[in-house]
Design goal:
The protein has one domain. Helix content is 84%, strand content 0%. The mean pLDDT is 87.
Length: 100
Amino acid sequence: MINSMTITGNILWVSGIALLLANWSWAYYEAQRLRAPFRTLRKQSPYPRVTLFGELLFASGLALSDARLWAKPLWGAIAIILMVFAIRDLRTRPAREETE
């Protein structure tokens, strides 16, 4: 029998990894195009926000699909921490952009 929570979890963590790889690949491409260091470009908007969202998808997916009972709360705690960071980032980002 197919477990829908496992399928949903697998979709989430695979999507998170795909988003992370696409984000880092795009940042690397832009760094090469602009002849800028990858490390500095990676810290500019929108790359950190997309990275955080990809990490959140990855941790949430593993919290739903991991079969080990001790790992589920660990991944859930990591996902909650990342969610707090994401909410804090969304609340503080407009204030930072107005001052620039």
